[in-house]
Amino acid sequence: MTFFNCNGVRLMPELSDREFDRASPILYFKVADLPATFGTLKARGVRFRNESHVIAEMPDHALWMAFF
Fold this sequence. Notes:
Order of helices and strands: EEHEE
Helix content: 10-25%
Radius of gyration: 14 Å
Oligomer: single chain
Number of helices: 1
Low-confidence stretches: none
Mean pLDDT: 79
Structural class: alpha+beta
Number of strands: 4
Shape: globular
Strand order of the largest sheet: 1-2
Largest sheet: 2 strands, antiparallel
């Protein structure tokens, strides 16, 4: 996994996942309380493909990922 800093926007190039029949964008959301947000979304019926998990330790925060 590689990220490029494009004038403050983080870009992650990636090959298409064969699981999908077309390219799918990945959106990142910054939230104040990840466990609470994850729980709220699940309670509202959002179906996650996996549990949230750390994918990178950044200098000032941990980057978590979950697909829904």
